[in-house]
Specification:
The chain has about 180 residues and is of the alpha+beta class. It contains six helices and five strands.
Length: about 180
């Protein structure tokens, strides 16, 4: 009986140890797996270059061609258009920009809003992939390397093929017999 109770106690300890190991493994696995975060983009991205191309006196259609369709056009404030842009991307800070375009008698008057980035600045801010530049090839050639390409003879050109007219003898598209 004593042997059986010792075996039973050892079995219970082994079960508890296995249960604890399974729980620790599951928790460790959950910590390693991160869920996918959806990239959320809302509104129109308006760059510094686009705003700089606006000129007083432009029509609403010209402004729409440059900046895109406004996010908010209010019937109560017909003299202004609101542009808003928000992006939330995993691994980067959320970005939010606002811009208001004002009109006088259906012609562009002025713009107010946040300090806008250029297109290249915006692309650099949302780029989450870090490129290892140490493995990129060098894209410059020395004068010595270039001189090796200058001395190669050009293949002879056959001008007879260029001046010869193309053959204009084609088979008929439809049968001549009916």
């Amino acid at each position: 009986m004593n042997l059986l109770s010792n075996f039973n106690a050892a079995y219970q300890r082994l079960k508890a140890f296995a249960r604890t190991g399974a729980i620790c493994s599951a928790l460790g696995l959950c910590a390693c797996i991160t869920p996918y975060h959806v990239e959320v983009v809302q509104g129109n991205f308006v760059s510094k270059e686009q705003v700089q191309s606006l000129r007083p006196g432009m029509t609403r259609n010209q402004i729409r061609e440059i900046l895109g369709t406004p996010l908010i056009t209010s019937p109560f404030h017909a003299d202004r258009w609101e542009y808003a842009f928000t992006i939330r991307r995993s691994g980067t800070q959320p970005q939010q920009r606002r811009l208001t375009v004002f009109f006088k008698v259906d012609q562009f008057d002025r713009v107010e809003g946040d300090d806008l980035p250029s297109e290249s600045e915006f692309a650099a801010r949302i780029d989450t992939q870090k490129v290892d530049t140490s493995k990129l090839p060098r894209l410059q050639a020395t004068e010595k390397e270039l001189s090796g390409y200058k001395n190669k003879p050009k293949p002879p050109q056959n001008n007879d093929l260029d001046s010869a007219p193309a053959s204009m003898n084609y088979p008929p598209l439809e049968s001549t017999r009916r």
